Amino acid sequence: MSRTAVVIGAGAAGILAAAALALVVDQVVVLERDALPDGPENRKGVPQGRHAHLMMAGGLDAMDTLIPGMDMRKHLIASGANEISLCRDMVVFSSVGWFHRWRHADPLIVTCSRALLDWAIRTAVLKSLNNIEIRQAKAIDLLGDSERVRGVRIATAGPDTPFDADFTAKYGLQLSADRGEADLYADFVVDASGRGSRISTWLGSIGVNDIPERTLDSGLVNSTRLYRIPEGAGSWPLTMIQPNPFTGGPARSGMIVPIEGNRWMVSLGGSRGGEPPKDPDAFLQYALDLPHPIVGQLIAGAEPLTQVFTSHSTSNTRRYLEKAAVWPENLVVLGDALATFNPLYGQGMSVAALGAQALAKTIWHRWGSQGLARRVQREVAKSVDAAWTLAVSSDVLYPNVIGGEPTATDRLAAQYTRRLTRSATGSYSAASALFDVTSMRKSALRLMQPRPLLAALTGPALPSLSGPPLTPAEQETLRGLIRAGQMGQGPQPSA
User: What are the b/e assignments for 153-184, b being 16+ CB within 10 Å?
Assistant: First the structure.
């Protein structure tokens, strides 16, 4: 008998989950309510789609295990993405000063727009695995009970997108009287529908009601604008002004991320009371007023290509599904449907990839076993833990946070991280430990190994930097852009 799996959501998390399931079932149906573009274009159903995204090394490694014969780093770079070394190709001003830059290449991350990332992952998976298909429809409920999920009740994405005859016949859909709803039966269901998931409501409808949840909301607002990379700045490093959780004031940050199409994606962030503006002139001034003005200095002489886009979908929210007293067979939740993070830390996409990898490893060895879905859910939760701790232990320190006060553990973790970060500004042992964890190649236990512990105790080996660690060529580029900005000669927005 053939086996069918259904995945809800065709974002990166859903497509990678489909790749995992394709190893053990005959057919995977991915349900997506949006019409998917043919190329790397923004779409309505991705609330953070216009803002900065990083694919960490751990996420890239996970994708390579999921997509047969595909080197995802090379595929993304061939599609237009940029490869960045966290050690060598970043200029970072942290809460305790500037990081030195090191000659070491690893760990490597990839930067590009979210639209390119989704499109490249989707094309790679569909090219490599021929038992996955995407159908435009929206999931409206689960079929089954608290013991076992048997499929998904689906509805048409709209009056203009009815279920086609092939879809109806292939999966034996019994259409409702108005032909707008149907029951799609499956041997396994994955919810990867993102921040807007209705999984808690759906679980309640089948008798699973004891799901602990936590939301921590710093009120972060992201404001993002695209710029053309100025002449001579094509190899400019990723530039980041990190927020400082120890001032007692709002988080304020800024970054310049190189993306495809010879563009800079410039994202400014601010928590409640320090939100970045949407007005273009105020956007520039906000960047200049950060703890160091380098982001504003660079964009003052660069050509803006878009308006300023803002997003408030930035809270940390986690559903502790692995703690449910009862969990139905054949249902797994991953990606943003399971946990969302402050996007400042750039780990959400990699967490989704690691969750799909955990799904693949577990079902490959245990398909058909009792308690499989619960076992998968617990493994997926492990991939969430480190990113959740990083985001929440920092965000909880900012004023006017909604969702809880910092615990003694939060404060202890923050103090140790601050001390290790200070050492990392001038110690490769400390910096490499931090980069291993933030790139998601190692767990947080890496920070407690002897070398980073010693570095945290002894402090930075190199003297503190008085300014950004730029090469002579980069210094000249920066001076030129500062002059252009001061003289009002920065290019105007494109028509």
Answer: bbbbbeeeebbeeebeeebebeeeeeeebbbb
Non-local (6+) Cβ contacts of 70 within 8 A are 63, 64, 124, 128
Helices (H), 67-113: 72-78
Asked if omega into 107 is within 30° of 0 (cis), the reply is yes
Rounded Cα–Cα distance for residues 396 and 388 (Å) = 12
In single-letter form, the type of residue at position 489 comes to Q
Distance of CA 374 to the CA centre of its chain: 24
Per-residue pLDDT tens, the chain, 495 aa: give them. Answer: 689 999 999 999 999 999 999 999 999 999 999 888 888 777 776 656 567 778 899 999 999 999 988 899 999 999 999 999 999 999 999 989 999 999 888 888 999 998 999 999 999 999 999 999 999 999 999 999 999 999 999 999 888 888 888 999 998 888 886 778 999 999 999 999 998 899 999 999 999 988 999 988 888 888 999 999 999 898 999 999 998 888 888 889 999 999 999 999 999 998 888 899 999 999 999 999 999 999 999 999 899 999 999 887 778 899 999 999 999 999 999 999 999 887 777 788 899 999 999 999 999 888 888 999 999 999 999 889 888 887 887 788 888 888 877 788 778 888 888 899 999 999 999 999 999 988 888 888 888 899 989 998 999 889 999 999 999 999 999 998 888 877 664 444 443
Residue 40 — φ and ψ, nearest 5°?
A: -75, 85
Residue from 61, 59, 56, 1 nearest 26 by CA: 1
DSSP lists the bridge partners of residue 252 as 270
Which domains can be identified in the chain, with CATH numbers?
Answer: 4-49+117-215+315-391 (3.50.50.60), 90-111+221-311+465-486 (3.30.9), 407-458 (no CATH)
Say which amino acid occupies 439. Answer: S
Given a contact cutoff of 8 angstroms between Cβ atoms, the answer to whether 333 and 324 are in contact is no
